[in-house]
Amino acid sequence: MAVYTEVSDDELARFIDGYALGRLLSFKGIAEGVENTNYLVHTTDGTFILTLYEKRVDPADLPFFLGLMEHLSAAGVTCPLPVRDKSGRVLNELAGRQAALITFLEGVWPKRPKVVHALELGKALARMHIAGEGFPLKRANALGLAGWRPLFDKFSSRTEEICDGLHDLIADELRYLERSWPKDLPQGVIHADLFPDNVFFVEDGLSGIIDFYFACNDAFAYDIAVCLNAWCFDAKSQYEPQKGAALLAGYNSVRPLTDAERAAMPVLARGAAMRFLLTRSYDWLNTPKDALVARKDPADYVRRLKFHQSVGSIADYTAQLTS
Ligand SMILES: Nc1ncnc2c1ncn2[C@@H]1O[C@H](COP(=O)(O)OP(=O)(O)O)[C@@H](O)[C@H]1O
Ligand SMILES: N[C@@H](CCOP(=O)(O)O)C(=O)O
Q: Is residue 108 in a domain?
């Protein structure tokens, strides 16, 4: 459960009084998520999600994240909307943290994504990329190529606490990525963390996207690579080419990939594996013992990275195995 910050009944009742949402009825910590503290809040007017922003969120970025949700929602993407308080603000302070209330989305995230989920995801991702056009705020990807080495430096002396060989795997791969990272790919606003637990479905229809707290300006194709890793491998970290093919086909049906994007997919998939290997490794070593959070296993991303290193091109590989 990701609850880093406890909120008392009285504190929350006072906080809710600041909004035109009726009276607080009940609230409980949410048993999912990694980055922030989330509570499910019931008031006499409805159900909302209360988020208290934690460690990795720079308060200066909050207008980007909350403004993006408003922009995407207005452009037809089903995502949470920040709720304004009685004086029109979306951000307030609660229990010493910046906090916001957002609307509750119906649906459940797929615990075992199927091919149809990957297809729908691909279409929704492309629609989201198009819908992001015209969003006026900018945010660099703090966990992009330039951020990986400084993050590695923070835990490189402790990698053996995770697994043997991890230090050299990361160090060698960082050198490769720094040499090979593609420039000049089509860019725009990307989600950058579109894992299954951030995408809701009602039956097989995609009902909404949440958790925009890593969103930034970066290459669209990098967002696809993040999804390939997160959606198209089974529980044993074996690549599932039918899902990869469905994701790419769904995306391509809405926003056709350029030749340069296709060619870059193998290195982007390696970079996307590196990004989550680094944050998971850091969190594995640094999550406070008393935090109510389920740490994510870095080993899943060691296996993905090794898979990408072993195949030439994930797009060719997908095409080969599905033709
Ligand atoms: N708008 C929402 N509607 C419904 N459930 C939500 C919403 N936002 C978050 N949740 C629930 O809270 C969980 C954690 O949210 P998330 O934004 O992923 O947290 P974190 O930023 O900590 O990763 C989600 O898996 C989901 O169950
Ligand atoms: N998706 C990341 C962890 C971030 O968690 P989220 O709850 O914000 O999606 C990972 O799997 O490492």
A: no
Range of the domain at 181: 115-322
Residues 61 and 24 in one domain: yes
Domain assignment of residue 3, yes or no: no
ipTM: 0.93
Rounded-to-integer distance, Cα 63 and Cα 131, Å: 18
Residues 42 and 185 in one domain: no
Residue to probe by mutation, ligand 1, list 77, 104, 211, most atoms within 8 Å of CB? 211
Same domain assignment for residues 208 and 271: yes
User: What is the residue type of 25?
Assistant: L
**pTM attached to this predicted model:** 0.94
Ligand 2 atom with the smallest distance to the CA of 230 is 11
Q: How far is CA 176 from CA 108, 141, 171, 224, 239, in A?
A: 38, 20, 9, 20, 22
Cα–Cα distance measured from residue 99 to residue 91, given in angstroms and rounded to the nearest whole number: 6
Does residue 275 share a domain with residue 152?
yes
311 to 34, 118, 223, 302: CA distances (angstroms): 31, 21, 20, 15
> What whole-number distance in Å separates Cα of residue 108 and Cα of residue 200?
5
Q: Which residues contact 1 (CB under 8 A, 6 or more apart)?
A: 29, 30, 31, 32, 292, 293, 294
Q: Which residues of the chain have pLDDT under 70?
A: 1, 291-292, 315, 317-323
Counting ligand 2 atoms within 8 A of each CB, the residue from 296, 297, 303 with the most, and so the one to mutate, is: 296
CB distance 195 to ligand 2 below 6 Å: yes
- pLDDT for the residue numbered 321: 52
Closest listed residue to residue 299, CA positions, set 169, 151, 147: 169
Residue 33 — φ and ψ, nearest 5°? 100, 165
Please answer whether residues 226 and 141 qualify as being in contact, where contact means their C-beta atoms are separated by less than 8 angstroms: no
Ligand 2 pocket check for 300: Cβ under 6 Å: no
DSSP character at residue 233:
B
Q: CB within 6 Å of ligand 1 — which residues?
A: 2, 30, 32-36, 38, 49, 80, 102, 104-105, 197-198, 210-211, 213
